[in-house]
Here is the input.
Amino acid sequence: MGLACVECALTGRAEHAPTAETYPEDQVRRFTFAAGGGLGRTLSAIHTPRATPAPWKIVVITGAPSWAEYWAPALADLPSHREMVVVDRPGYGASEPVATIGDIALQAEALRPLLDAPRGQKVLLVGQSYGAAIASVMADANPGKVHGLVLMSGYFGEPGPTARWLVDVGSRMLTVLPRDLRNAVREVSGQPSQLPLARRALARLRVPVTVIHGDKDDFAPIEIAERLVSEVRARIPMRFERVEGADHFLNDGPTEALLAAIEGCIPEPARPRLTLSSGLVALLRRLAPRAEVANVMSFEGQA
Here is the structure.
């Protein structure tokens, strides 16, 4: 990926691995949209075109660097009853601006249009790595638009040995690094002071939150993710899923395993509740013996 960054810098190409050269447009298609928050910027993303809206749309906020095309195999293998959109965050790929936007709240506002959905469609928001904190803020700031949140390989301020080395070396070479790598170093370096915002957002959420983390992650140690789950007093207890043998890049493995993990985070539909109107209960009291009405009332309470 580092070589792809250099190649893009030299050629001016926005995508490291152009999706149009590998996937037909009815599987994976790139599109642009106006950023939220009045930024006046254009953002770029890839998505799965569907003739009719799927019941669930999966929105992926990628990490640092933010490269949507590395999710393209998962989009191509996504079943037809799901949709997925993966974004190049501001400062990366074909998205504007060129400079870093280090404020996670401002990034969350810029990415808000991704949560728009047609009537009846629900949104599962997935925050990957650095994108996990941004997705947490997005979910909190848009109640009713997000129906489930997934923190995948979430990075929350404490790097593992590999990430620590990369940020340390990158900080000394900022002037010669390609744009995407330079912006990534700046983002990661400036994240720790913003984490209280993300933690407060997680504590306020009223939707299911699932944390998925590989136990071989040397970028964002699994111990930090476990601590986050134990320390944040969420309204709905967060679910933790440990992936044996997996590293930081869960989207780089078999698409079947990745999609199965995401599918497992989609909340079960609510069971219908049977209720009886007060008028119907009154009528039953007149027409049926008292014992039978009691049975009906008992059934109503259990339904």
